[in-house]
Structures are given as structure tokens and as C-alpha cells.
């Protein structure tokens, strides 16, 4: 196992964890606070802070306001996933046994096993990929260079005893299938890529792994990231043999980047790939006519196909996934899925003291984010339930959380109550 030197460690912690964890903690915190109690501020503010905790509570000026909420004991309409999400409820699905039961795999990287990390933007993927290259007991271990300051990522090689790559990971192989390649791109590309490598003569078993995240938090995190200048315009959006054209997916911005974009501009751009990003990146887009403008299906039909495909893939084609919000439990599930593979460090969401941005949005804006990400919300509710049921099946206890979703049976009726 590689233990980074002290200096590199410090930078690693600062860059990777600060970006991810602080934003994550703060937004989760704000999110639930906002959802359960309403928000003071009209519009939004983006602020800088040098620490989280009590100061933040004061900065936000949290106020308890009454608002409408769903009374699940009522006998009205049937609760759907979006309403459940808004009220911090989780509808329990009936899964087939085969989808709940995690069949452990004895990972043999020297033979056929290959791990493919699908990295959805702003889901904790950078940290996850770093842990996979730096903090596991895998033999032979990955070899990583020291992190160079203005070069914010690890550069590693992860090779088996025959010198063959065994993991598609940004830090190791780079983006071999395009920047933040999605399921459609990866499944189309990995085999070809491996075959093009020298030294590659083996049967390969691909194991897809990924993280997902609360869709509203993720969307806002992406907005803040784009605000800071990220574009991902190198994404290929490859599907059915070609990249999406500019006519199909126009850029939302004219000049090089979208730095400084306001929330309104960000959410107003109809071709913004941040909308329902998780669903799109986990689906087989070929089934919903890719990005084609001349599809004979309606948008609604394409959306439903995409969502069903993303759910099926997550359930059946991924050996492992975890919501970022449950990463501690996810790490255990990972280790029980890939036998003989364990992490030497825990991923957690703790207190970090680094300057970063966070957002305070009004309830109106939260609602807009929900409306624009309905597919991701439905996917996330489904996936979270599947994940929690898998944990239960594997006897992995769930750590108590302040804002645990309440689990309710499918078909539950509700009524809206205004306090
Ligand atoms: C792969 O081979 C190396 C060298 O023989 C060995 O040390 C390592 O334990 C093997 N890894 C696995 C997962 O079998
Ligand atoms: C966003 O769209 C809304 C509704 O179409 C419009 O009222 C608003 O002016 C737009 N805002 C920006 C910044 O484009
Ligand atoms: C995606 O869908 C297309 C069209 O049905 C199919 O040919 C292809 O095998 C699918 N890809 C995966 C990875 O399931
Ligand atoms: C849609 O356009 C693509 C090219 O973008 C073309 O190959 C295909 O035949 C068209 N399909 C229909 C139904 O017109």
C-alpha cells in the first residue's frame, strides 16, 4: 500500500476533501434545513467561509417558518417519488431477491477482473477515485507520483502482475473513453481501449462501480463548480457511433467558460447537461434515441425510457454503487462485494476548515431545481431504497443521521397539511 508523504498528504486532504466534503456537508446541512424549515433569503447568495459549524448557522440566519408538508397518515392521493423526496420520505420498493443479494466477487486483478469507475460530476467521484488508487490493500499496489501543487490530481499507474491495467480510473488511465464518460460511452469503448493496449491478451470481466448523490445538492454543486469556471465542454456525448452535434446539444455559454454564471442563467439554459445528469449518465442512451433531434418518440417517452434504463443498469449492470450521503456504509458494502479488496482509510464527511463557496437558495429556487431534475429525483429515490435494502441484507448497520428519510410503503396515500 502506498502511504503518501506528509506534505503530499496535507495537499491531498486540502484539495480533494476540502472541495468535496466541505461543500457537501454545508449543502446537505443547508438543504435539509431549507427543506424542513423554509428559508429566510429571497434569491440566493454565494458566500465564502473559512469554516463550518456554528458560524454557518449564524451566517445563514436560520428561521423556523411554517410551510406545507405531507401527512402520510392521510387518505388522499398516492404518494409518488417526487412528493416523497420533497417530504424526506422514501417509498419502499419490492425488489427481486436476485437484485438485493450481493454476490461477492473474488477480485483477481492478475486474471480477468477489471474495475470501471463511472464518475458522475459532483458526486464525490474524485475522492472515491483517489481512495481506489491510494488507500487500498490491492497487490500489486498502484504507484502514484506526489501531487504537484497546481496540478490537482494524482497520477498513478495501477497494473497487475503482468503489467496490464486493471482499473479504468481517471487518476490511473485518464479519461480513456472521454471526459466523465457515461455508461453509453464506457460500454461502447472499454473493450476497444483494452484491446488496443500492448500486453493485453486475456478474457476480461468488467465491474462497473459508481457513486450517486442527492440530485438537488448535486445540481447546486455543479452550478457552483461551473461558476468557478469548470465547463466539461470536452465531453463527447458519444452515442450510436458518433458524438452529439452542436445543433443537438448547444453550449449554454458563448465565451470559453461560464464562470460567474448566476443561478437564473444556469437553470434557464434548456440544453444544460446538469439537468438529470445522473439518469442520463447511467442509462443506455441508445434506447432513447441518443441526442437525435429527429426522434419519433415524444420527450416524455424518451425520458421514461432513459429513467427505466438508468434504474435497470444501476441495479443489474453495476457491481457496486453508493449514495455519497452513505459513503461510510458504501465503503463496507464495497468491501463485501469485492472480496479481498479493502480500504485502508475511511471516507467520511467531517469538519474541514478550508475556504470554499456555498449557496443559500430561496425555497422558490429549490423548487425550480426539483422541477428540472425530476428524473434524477425518481432515480435517486429508487437507488437509495435499493442501497438501503442491500445494506440490510448484508447486515451492514446504517449509522443514525440527523435527517434520516422516513421509509413508507409503496401505494401510501397522503394529504397535504398546511400549518
Ligand atoms: C497478483 O500477483 C502478484 C505477484 O505475483 C501477487 O503478489 C498478488 O497477490 C496477486 N494479486 C492477486 C489479487 O491475486
Ligand atoms: C429565466 O427565465 C425566466 C422565465 O422564462 C425569465 O423570467 C427570467 O428573466 C430568465 N432569467 C434569466 C437570467 O435569463
Ligand atoms: C444499448 O442499447 C442498444 C440498443 O438496444 C443495444 O444494442 C446495446 O447492446 C445496449 N448496450 C448495453 C451496454 O446494454
Ligand atoms: C435522423 O437523423 C439521422 C442523422 O442525424 C439519420 O441518420 C436518421 O436516418 C434520421 N432518422 C429519421 C427517422 O429520419
TrEMBL record:
* Keywords tagged on the record: Glycoprotein, Membrane, Signal-anchor, Transferase, Transmembrane, Transmembrane helix
Which InterPro entries is this protein grouped with? Heparan_SO4-6-sulfoTrfase, P-loop_NTPase, Sulfotransferase
The broad enzyme category this protein falls into is transferase
Q: What is its main location?
A: membrane
Transmembrane residue ranges: 12-32
Q: What does this protein do?
A: 6-O-sulfation enzyme which catalyzes the transfer of sulfate from 3'-phosphoadenosine 5'-phosphosulfate (PAPS) to position 6 of the N-sulfoglucosamine residue (GlcNS) of heparan sulfate.
Enzyme Commission code(s) on record: 2.8.2.-
The domain of life is Eukaryota
Coiled-coil annotated spans: none
Name the UniProt record assigns to this protein: Heparan-sulfate 6-O-sulfotransferase
Which family is this protein grouped under?
A: Belongs to the sulfotransferase 6 family.
Pfam families in the cross-refs: Sulfotransfer_2 (PF03567)
Q: Which PANTHER family match?
A: HEPARAN SULFATE 6-O-SULFOTRANSFERASE 3 (PTHR12812), HEPARAN-SULFATE 6-O-SULFOTRANSFERASE (PTHR12812:SF0)
Q: Where in the cell is it found?
A: Membrane
Give the GO cellular component terms, alphabetically: membrane
Q: Which organism is it from?
A: Biomphalaria glabrata (Bloodfluke planorb)
Reactions accelerated catalytically: alpha-D-glucosaminyl-[heparan sulfate](n) + 3'-phosphoadenylyl sulfate = 6-sulfo-alpha-D-glucosaminyl-[heparan sulfate](n) + adenosine 3',5'-bisphosphate + H(+)
Q: Which GO terms describe its molecular function?
A: heparan sulfate 6-sulfotransferase activity
Gene name of the encoded protein: LOC106055760
Amino acid at each position: 500500500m502506498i502511504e503518501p508523504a506528509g506534505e503530499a498528504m496535507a495537499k491531498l486532504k486540502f484539495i480533494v476533501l476540502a472541495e468535496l466534503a466541505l461543500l457537501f456537508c454545508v449543502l446537505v446541512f443547508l438543504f435539509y434545513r431549507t427543506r424542513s424549515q423554509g428559508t429566510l433569503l429571497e434569491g440566493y447568495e454565494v458566500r465564502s467561509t473559512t469554516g463550518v459549524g456554528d458560524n454557518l448557522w449564524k451566517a445563514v440566519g436560520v428561521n423556523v417558518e411554517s410551510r406545507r408538508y405531507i401527512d402520510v397518515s392521510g387518505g388522499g392521493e398516492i404518494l409518488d417519488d417526487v412528493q416523497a423526496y420533497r417530504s424526506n420520505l422514501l417509498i419502499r420498493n419490492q425488489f427481486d431477491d436476485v437484485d438485493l443479494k450481493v454476490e461477492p466477487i473474488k477480485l483477481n486483478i492478475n486474471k480477468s477482473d477489471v474495475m470501471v469507475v463511472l464518475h458522475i460530476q459532483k458526486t464525490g467521484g474524485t475522492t472515491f477515485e483517489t481512495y481506489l488508487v491510494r488507500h487500498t490493500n490491492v497487490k500489486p499496489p498502484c504507484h502514484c507520483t506526489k501531487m504537484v501543487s497546481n496540478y490537482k490530481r494524482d497520477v498513478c499507474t495501477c497494473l497487475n502482475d503482468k503489467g496490464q491495467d486493471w482499473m479504468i480510473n481517471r487518476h490511473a488511465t485518464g479519461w480513456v473513453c472521454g471526459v466523465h464518460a457515461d455508461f453509453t460511452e464506457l460500454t461502447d469503448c472499454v473493450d476497444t481501449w483494452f484491446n488496443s493496449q500492448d500486453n493485453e491478451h486475456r478474457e476480461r470481466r468488467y465491474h462497473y462501480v459508481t457513486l450517486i448523490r442527492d440530485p438537488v445538492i448535486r445540481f447546486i454543486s455543479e452550478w457552483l463548480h461551473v461558476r468557478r469556471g469548470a465547463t466539461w465542454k470536452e465531453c463527447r456525448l458519444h452515442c450510436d457511433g458518433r458524438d452529439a452535434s452542436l445543433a443537438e446539444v448547444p453550449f449554454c455559454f458563448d465565451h470559453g467558460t461560464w464562470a460567474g454564471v448566476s443561478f437564473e442563467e444556469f437553470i434557464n439554459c434548456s440544453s444544460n447537461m446538469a439537468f438529470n445528469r445522473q439518469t442520463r449518465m447511467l442509462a443506455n442512451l441508445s434506447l432513447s434515441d441518443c441526442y437525435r433531434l429527429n426522434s419519433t418518440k415524444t420527450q416524455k417517452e424518451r425520458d421514461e425510457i432513459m429513467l427505466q434504463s438508468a434504474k435497470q443498469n444501476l441495479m443489474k449492470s453495476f457491481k457496486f454503487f453508493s449514495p455519497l450521503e452513505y459513503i461510510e456504509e458504501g465503503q463496507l458494502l464495497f468491501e463485501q462485494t469485492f472480496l479481498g479488496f479493502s480500504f485502508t482509510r475511511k471516507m467520511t464527511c467531517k469538519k474541514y476548515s478550508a475556504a470554499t463557496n456555498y449557496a443559500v437558495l430561496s425555497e422558490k429556487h429549490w423548487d425550480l431545481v426539483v422541477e428540472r431534475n425530476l428524473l434524477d429525483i425518481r432515480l435517486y429515490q429508487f437507488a437509495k431504497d435499493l442501497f438501503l435494502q442491500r445494506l440490510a441484507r448484508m447486515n451492514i448497520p446504517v449509522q443514525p443521521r440527523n435527517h434520516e428519510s422516513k421509509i413508507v410503503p409503496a401505494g401510501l396515500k397522503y394529504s397535504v397539511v398546511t400549518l
